[in-house]
Every structure is written in C-alpha cells, then in structure tokens.
Amino acid sequence: MKINSIDGRSPERVFDACRYTCRHFAEKQMDAIEISGNVFDFPDTRINPYRESVLRDYADQIAEDVDIPIILVGLNRSCATMTEILNSTNIRYFSLSRPLIREPNLINLWQQNPMYVPQCLSCNQCFRPDGNTCIFE
C-alpha cells in the first residue's frame, strides 16, 4: 500500500491520519506500506530538513508503530544515506522512480561505485502522457 504522510494543507492532521491508517492495515496483515507525501511545499526546515530521502522521519515513525515492512520513497539518491537509514531505523526498503528513468542501470553503477551520484535532476519532465522518458536522454 502506498499512503500520503504529509501535505501542504494540514501536515499534523494528515500525518495523524496516516499513522492511524497504517496501524489499521498492519493489523490486517498488509504486506508492506510505502510512505509518500509532499514536503516540497514546505520551506520550513523543521518539516523538511533533508535534501534527499526527505520523508525518512515520517516513515521511521510509522516503522516504529507497525510490524510490517516500511518502504521509503522521496528523493532517495545516495547509497550512503540509504545505508545510514537502513542501519539506524526500522525502514527496510527504498523506492526509486525518476533516477531509474534517467539511468536504468543505476543499481549496477552503485554496485561498481557506491559514491556514484545519480544524474536525475528531479525536474519531473519525465512523466508524460506518451510515456515516461527522461528529457535529457
């Protein structure tokens, strides 16, 4: 299940509803939950203090609440950051989309060089009605 954890209208209320919903579905034996959301409308760094893996705090709180795998989405861009999150939280999986559209072989590049920086700019120009392709390819 993919669920919104925060948005620009009422961040606290949305997150409270997200936590409640995640607990409910975890009790119903959901296989996993992907934590999504919109932190990009918040210039306040108390709400979004990160430049990558931006939803990690929200996903971590949900991971503490439930006994099923939590998947983190939202600007997952470096092996070092994802490894740190994997080793310091109960988040177990990471989701990527745009970086893989730009570089379908990204996982192989990371295996060769864990410090490799993906080329994706997160410009969102890859999502088009005629198909998802990077405008820089």
UniProtKB/TrEMBL annotation:
Q: Which residues form the signal peptide?
A: none
Coiled coil stretches, renumbered: none
Q: Does the keyword Ribonucleoprotein apply?
A: no
**Record's keyword annotation contains Acetylation:** no
Q: Which GO terms describe its molecular function?
A: oxidoreductase activity
- InterPro entries reported in the protein's UniProt record: Aldolase_TIM (IPR013785), NADH_flavin_oxidoreductase (IPR051799)
Entry's SUPFAM superfamilies?
FMN-linked oxidoreductases (SSF51395)
Provide this UniProt record's keywords sorted from A to Z.
Flavoprotein, Oxidoreductase
Q: Which domain of life is it from?
A: Bacteria
Which protein, by its recorded name, is this?
NADH:flavin oxidoreductase/NADH oxidase
Give the source lineage, highest ranks first: Bacteria, Candidatus Moduliflexota, Candidatus Moduliflexia, Candidatus Moduliflexales, Candidatus Moduliflexaceae
